[in-house]
Amino acid sequence: xxLNEKLKVYLDYLLKLDPDxxxxxxxxxxxxxxxxxxxxxxxxxxxxxxxxxxxxxxxxGTNVGFSALTMARVLRKGMIYTLDYREDLQNQALxxxxxxxxxxxxxxINGRAEKMLFRIDEKxxxxxxxxDKRGYPLYLDYAIEHINSDGxxxxxxxxxxxxxxxxxxxxxxxxxxxxxxxxxxxxSKLNGFKSQLLAxxxxxxxxxxxx
Length: 211
Ligand SMILES: C[S@@+](CC[C@H](N)C(=O)[O-])C[C@H]1O[C@@H](n2cnc3c(N)ncnc32)[C@H](O)[C@@H]1O
Fold this sequence. Notes:
- By secondary structure, the protein is an alpha/beta fold.
- It is about 35% helix and about 20% strand.
- The chain contains eight helices and seven strands; from the N terminus they run αααβαβαβαβαβαββ.
- The longest helix is centred in the first third of the chain and has 14 residues.
- The chain is globular, with a radius of gyration of 16 Å.
- Bound molecules: S-adenosylmethionine.
- S-adenosylmethionine binds next to α4, β2 and α6.
């Protein structure tokens, strides 16, 4: 747990995502244990997209498309590529995109990131990493090579439910902890970027590429 439980309840209450429908979908996904971004992270993602109005976004880890549709709803003319190896979830993601009229702004890619990424030789303005933690070092290598100047790399789950900064509280230990601890050290002093870790959701890394 990153935040004090009462503070989290208070912020969740203030942060109800959107009165016109996404909150209902979000609550459904949380209740049914879909691995969706935190409510505060979703709001932050949409704010970053609103400010930057990127031409191209890449998301690694679609699941049923909540974070992608959150970004797409505030994207004026750009395109989001989102990839996931779970073919069985793609229809549900597409239904969610249609429900919020954003299907034209999102391209779904099916396949394993470690393979598919290297077939996408394009540059992006925002890259959002939210998939298997063991793959994070590789996805970061890719992101560094494929982010435009002034582009933003975002990475979710960097605190991994608290296990990264308080590993002794977890028995059995969480397998991804050593990878994420190393990752966070690297990410925090990433050459050519201004980066930091934010206490949002499960820990969100943000790195902005400098010229
Ligand atoms: C935390 S969920 C993504 C949640 C989504 N970003 C959201 O907030 O709505 C992580 C997703 O990454 C996918 N995933 C895990 N490992 C992957 C890999 N190696 N390649 C592609 N997708 C992967 C999983 O299938 C899962 O749907």
